[in-house]
Amino acid sequence: MTVPDLIDSVIKRFPDTDAVVHRAGRLTYRQMDRLADAVAADLLAAGARRESFVALLLEDRVELLVAMLGTMRAGAAFVPFDSTWPAQRQRRMLNDLAPAAVVGLRPTSGAGHVPVIPVRTNVSGVPLTRPPTAAGPDDPIYAFFTSGSTGRPKCAVNLHRGLVNRFLSMTERFAADGAVVLQNSAHTFDSSIWQLLWPLTRGATVVIPDRDGILDFDATLTEIHRHRVTMTDFVPSIFDLLVERLQDRPRDLRLLTSLRQVFIGGESANPLTVHEFRRMLPQARVTNTYGPTEASIGSVFHAIGDADRTVIPLGRPLPNTFVLLLDDQQRPARAGAVGEIYLGGVCLGAGYRGDDEPTRLAFVPNQFPEVPGDTLYRTGDFGWIRDDGVLMFSGRRDSQVKIAGVRVDLGEVDSSITAVPGVHQVKAVIDQSGAAATLVCFYSAEASVTEHALRTHARARLPAALVPSRFVQLATLPLMSNGKVDQERLRGWSSGAAPDDPAAKATYPPDSVEWQIARIWTRVLGFSTHDNDDFFRVGGTSLGAARLVVELERALGVRLNARDLFEAPTIAAQAELVRTGRHAASRAAPHDIERDLRLDDLRPAATRRADPGAVLLIGATGFIGSHLLAALLEHGDRQIVCLVRATDGKSALDRVVAALAEAGGSGDLRRITALRGDLTRPRLGLAAPDWDWLCREVGTIADAGGQIDTLHGYADLRATNVDGLRSLIHLAGTHVRKELITLSTTTVRGPAATPLPELFLAPDSTLPADGYSQSKWVGEQLVREAAGHGIPATVIRLGEVAAHSRTGYANPRSLVTMILRLCLRLGVRPPTRARIDWTPVDTVAGLVAALAEPDCSGAPGTVLNALAPASVGVADLLARLRTPDGALSEIPYDEFLDRAADAVGDDDVARCLAVLRRTRCAPDGEPLTGVLHDALVGTDTFRAGQVARELGLDWGTSRDRKVDIMIDRLLATHSPVSVGPPHPFSAKAQ
């Protein structure tokens, strides 16, 4: 059999099961099947054949998965590339590979005349048949480029039979655990293969995470919790950092309760870390895996148990896979002796493409008749067999070095020092900068671990030649992009000085915030720095930034994220964050703002449509957008085109209809057309025919699709809220002029209570403080300029968009809603005198829908501050909440936050707490006033109210009944959670 055979049998049995879950939605097995057939058909048309190689250059992991399956169906082998690789590396690798085609992006160089094929995202209506060309079990299935000792990457080729054996072995062992698998490895490393493809061979679901790299633990934990992930994979270095984070934030353990199986592999595992993880999450089994890229991912497995306290075995080979321990003459090593590990059986690949000499050296003739196959693979690793028949690791060939004429194995040093309690990571390297080679041990550990303790431990257990001359403590060891320890960087550091007092270079007063941060930098980097050094320019890595975040929280009590440190890379900038408690991301770089204010090449058409045309609705699946769609369906008969992130048109329509139903809307669904698109991409991510159709047919653009996120900075929100709006403005001026209505926020005024007239903001007006408001401020400037060019543009500023006045349906992501739910969950409420404005969502939707009509009396090209003239006391909202025991009791704000941190593990509540923790108490001493505002204060709402009343909308001042409807619905849908004593892992319990 081949891997496509396994997957095809699943597609026939479970066509409508979710195969993939990703940021834009879901992809069923049936949908994946069609998309993969399209890739296969395009590849065959381009000349790909059985045993051809195809380069996959794709940033979208869903498209990557589809391309993998499509390439296999064409009979070819896929080879993942990375768009971030340097041009020279790409060119060299493409020349070595000589692919029949490239699927995805055009390479930066080196493609020559190789056809470049995009992944089709919509194949509805396209007649497709299963390609006739098929690979066999002995044909290549994939290849990965691995680093070579000469500096030239080698392309390791694997065969269908090896991967089928690996997948069937996994199904035999782990089928019950793998219902939902998180893809947790970089796509250019072979561990990603099992995460993407094995679940598809048994009807399971692959989760493609939406995050900023493998060190974005916040997003990783959220994805595991949201999708109830049961299985995933970690490189031990990443796993160690995750475990340490869970120790520091035990409440995050609740996000991992769905996990049943975790794989680790790629480098030596730390027994202490593994067993700490097993203690914290006893329902999750941990399996150590071993196997080179040249042999179908992993060949040896070991389920870690209580007996593996001091060292983690490699384990036993999978079925149809063989491990041999041979000496220097390739004879079997004697019982109990260390030998070099050779692999044999169906797991072996076909060597290195186009590299005969490296293949000859690594794939040697098989002299053992009891082992099937003509060749064995020489791994370069050393091991020995324990009495119970389990394979143990004993280092690599390239880790054996000579010191003073004595051959030592650095892996033995690592293993011994790792056994010291409190030690997290260890890597010994050779420093050859002096007259004689010396051994340097880099490690990360708890503060209680001293160099004296490590040296005493090493002397008691290692030969004198293996005791390191120097011990260098780092907060964490530097990693390469695949998550393994960067030994080359450590060797570069080995000749430098050990960490010393930062005062030697930094001149901060003792015990100042800067002085404390400098000391943390020294632990993380391994050396002291100067005052104005940039963390990342002096050697700080992404993992180092993640470590720095942990250390800053421990020492100074401020909770940041790695992105904050990219925005504030100096000690002085980080000290400001600590003092203010503000995210660096809340400050936008002025040059970014300046650049984004330009609206280049805008030449609107001179004519308007003779008929109203269609309405293009952006954000139809959001809270406001879904209610706006309901309002548009309720009035008029125009076609409504919804731009939606999805895998294809059908998925887009499904998302729109589901959102409409959740909002309680109804109407003639035949009036809705859903387009798969992306607000962040040029021309909205649409193909040329779809873009041209919008240019011709649309008469009004209703933009309710902005990204509302007060935790991220301007740079994170610019693509959606600025560049996306820029695309809509250009659309409004193309072919015929179209009316543009866009939603903004009252927080564009800067400080709260600053006067806000119903006028476009002046270009020199005060820039708001947070990234979201900055992005909307820039958006308003672009709309103002567009209106100056003759585009009929209207800005509608919103405050707190409240629950629907008749159904009580409230925005689940609203901070107000999350605070109410949090109070219900805890059974208590904080004191507050904060007030919020209160405009029901159906009122907002009715206003926008009416303004979209061509005969509306509200003149385009204006600004409306759409806030109904009444505000609500937050204390009044909280007082209306009830549990079965009665009204919620009031407790001090600090105690409220502590209870919340101990008792809550819900995603939205965690996000709520991230906002509330910014300031435990507002500057004026009033809880919640620092995060909740009454937008009516200082805001002119005269024209908005006048237009609303002319349209017959409910713009009254009474809110009691509407608030009660919302509270009643909230209570009816809330499942009480008992709050007992502190969780055993909580800080309070400890």
Blueprint of the fold:
Layout lengths: L2 H11 L4 E5 L2 E4 H17 L7 E5 L3 H13 L3 E4 L6 H11 L3 E4 L11 E2 L22 E7 L7 E6 H15 L5 E3 L8 H7 L7 E3 L9 H10 L4 E4 L1 H13 L12 E5 L5 H10 L4 E6 L9 E4 L12 E2 L3 E6 L12 E7 L5 E2 L3 H7 E3 L9 E11 L5 E6 L3 E4 L2 E4 H9 L4 E9 L6 E8 L5 H11 L8 E4 L13 H7 L19 H13 L16 H15 L5 H6 L3 H10 L9 H7 L17 E5 L4 H12 L5 E5 L4 H14 L9 E5 L11 H10 E6 L10 H20 L5 E7 L25 H18 L4 E6 L2 E2 L12 H12 L1 E2 L5 E3 L1 E2 H12 L10 E3 L5 E3 H6 L2 E2 L2 E2 L1 E2 L2 H11 L3 H10 L25 H9 L9 H14 L17
Helix pairs in contact: 2-3, 8-9, 14-15, 14-17, 19-20, 19-25, 22-23
Backbone shape: globular
Q: Order of strands side by side in the largest beta sheet?
A: 29-28-27-30-31-32-37
Helix/strand-derived class? alpha/beta
Would you give the CATH topology of the domain at 611-790? Rossmann fold
Can you identify the CATH class of the domain at 611-790?
Answer: Alpha Beta
> Roughly how many Å apart are the termini?
54 Å
User: Radius of gyration, rounded?
Assistant: 31 Å
**What is the overall number of helices?**
30
